[in-house]
């Protein structure tokens, strides 16, 4: 009986596949549209509006006389600091590798804490680390004493939203970039640990004190990657067990890591090459009058190419700390999903920044949705949970107009998706599916999915 119910659930979720020839046709259409979009974007940025965006161009650091689009501030800072990041991650990984082999397990943990904090200081500054972990001491002590979730939420959200105004930063754009991210992601670490203590009042802070120091000190999770404290504990304990069992010492374990590193190098230099020829970001940073002067195909092509840059940029930015955490024997969040292959926009939230998704899911959404309520109150709670999640997203990204528009459209899209899912599960809908057949049903769903992708698209 259970098997039949499971088959029914699978049937609800998986309409039959299209014929192979139609799948190949769909791939051909997608690839050709993608290639044409890049061609149109090249034409627009180098011919049609070149004179209006040339102020964004900077001399290339690779080829004399060439120009490169440096209008994306985050990538501009990142490319200046990537060598320093790789150096610090390398020092950190090599040092903890030695610590595990020189000291026993107990002493190796303390050595890793010292290594982590010293490399954070080298990556940012002593003042940055001192301010962040003084704040951590305050919030962690209060949370451990009172075990109220309100304490870490209030303190950490205020820190995230106001840190750029009040905390000290070093001079220099690339140093500012590193310190800003260490402050930001450090606050999320503090929040994750304190919420763990609040959710587990029987757990004494003394019992997780060393693990909390390891969590705060671990360098690859200090910026751009979000990992829950519970997940870090599990990963670190497994790493120690693997070392004791010598199960991670074979060369074969490092082949995927080497392959991952080569892919990251390729995508970094591909992005640098891309910015020498297509200036989609410069167009997006230009006045709306320039965009309004483009026809629909040109505007959509620029938007598509800018989206592809957005994806590859974060493949690299998330990927480099992930690479070194893999080297350390940890399991970081997976890389961002390719936005060109997203059919449900909810997958963007789940799989683009998987660490942020896990944080929102376990620290915001599930705690709100856990209590059982009446059907009427459940609807109100569902809307409140959605508002709370997107409220945290706005605190994280900021409340500028384009972020407000993106969050609002995303909320509308997720609501449409939820309504569609509810309709799909109705018996009358499944009866229509039976009359249409599996192939035609998939075609109808594919068409209707435009409603669940377009509103949430940040380039829409």
Automatic annotation (TrEMBL):
Matching Pfam families: MBOAT (PF03062)
Database matches in PANTHER family: ACYLTRANSFERASE, PROTEIN-CYSTEINE N-PALMITOYLTRANSFERASE RASP
Stated family: Belongs to the membrane-bound acyltransferase family. HHAT subfamily.
Domain of life: Eukaryota
Organism this protein belongs to: Caenorhabditis auriculariae
Localisation per UniProt entry: Membrane
The name this protein goes by in its record: Uncharacterized protein
Keywords: Membrane, Transmembrane, Transmembrane helix
GO MF, one annotated term: palmitoyltransferase activity
Lineage of source species: Eukaryota, Metazoa, Ecdysozoa, Nematoda, Chromadorea
Keyword Membrane applies: yes
Spans through the membrane: 25-44, 123-146, 153-176, 182-198, 210-229, 264-284, 296-324
GO cellular component: endoplasmic reticulum; membrane
Membrane topology classification: Multi-pass membrane protein
Predominant subcellular localization, coarse grouping: membrane
């Amino acid at each position: 009986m259970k098997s039949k119910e499971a088959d029914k659930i699978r049937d609800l979720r998986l309409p039959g596949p299209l014929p192979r020839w139609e799948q190949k046709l769909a791939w051909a259409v997608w690839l050709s549209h993608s290639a044409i979009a890049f061609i149109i974007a090249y034409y627009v940025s180098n011919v049609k509006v070149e004179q209006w965006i040339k102020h964004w161009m900077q001399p290339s650091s690779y080829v004399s006389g060439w120009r490169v689009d440096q209008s994306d501030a985050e990538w501009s800072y990142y490319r200046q600091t990537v060598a320093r990041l790789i150096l610090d991650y390398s020092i950190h990984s090599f040092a903890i590798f030695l610590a595990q082999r020189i000291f026993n397990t107990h002493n190796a943990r303390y050595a890793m804490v010292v290594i982590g904090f010293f490399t954070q200081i080298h990556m940012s500054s002593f003042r940055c680390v001192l301010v962040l972990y003084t704040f951590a001491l305050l919030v962690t002590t209060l949370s451990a004493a009172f075990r109220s979730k309100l304490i870490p939420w209030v303190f950490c959200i205020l820190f995230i939203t106001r840190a750029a105004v009040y905390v000290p930063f070093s001079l220099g754009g690339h140093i500012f970039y590193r310190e800003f991210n260490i402050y930001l992601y450090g606050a999320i670490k503090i929040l994750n640990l304190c919420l763990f203590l609040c959710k587990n009042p029987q757990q004494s802070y003394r019992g997780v004190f060393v693990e909390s120091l390891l969590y705060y000190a671990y360098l690859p999770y200090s910026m751009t990657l979000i990992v829950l404290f519970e997940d870090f504990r599990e990963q670190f304990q497994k790493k120690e067990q693997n070392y004791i069992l010598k199960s991670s010492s074979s060369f074969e374990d490092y082949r995927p890591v080497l392959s991952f590193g080569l892919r990251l190098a390729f995508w970094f230099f591909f992005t640098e090459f891309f910015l020498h020829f297509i200036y989609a970001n410069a167009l997006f940073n230009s006045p709306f009058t320039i965009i309004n002067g483009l026809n629909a195909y040109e505007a959509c092509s620029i938007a598509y190419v800018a989206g592809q840059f957005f994806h590859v940029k974060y493949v690299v930015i998330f990927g480099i700390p992930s690479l070194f955490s893999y080297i350390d024997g940890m399991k970081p969040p997976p890389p961002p999903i390719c936005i060109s292959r997203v059919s449900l926009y909810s997958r963007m939230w789940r799989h683009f920044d998987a660490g942020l998704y896990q944080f929102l899911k376990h620290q915001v959404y599930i705690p709100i949705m856990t209590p059982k309520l009446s059907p009427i109150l459940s609807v109100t709670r569902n809307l409140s949970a959605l508002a709370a999640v997107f409220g945290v997203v706005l605190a994280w990204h900021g409340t500028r107009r384009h972020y407000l528009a993106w969050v609002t459209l995303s909320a509308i899209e997720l609501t449409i998706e939820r309504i569609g899912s509810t309709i799909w599960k109705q018996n009358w809908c499944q009866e229509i599916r039976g009359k249409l057949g599996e192939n035609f049903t998939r075609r109808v769903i594919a068409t209707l999915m435009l409603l669940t992708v377009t509103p949430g698209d940040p380039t829409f």
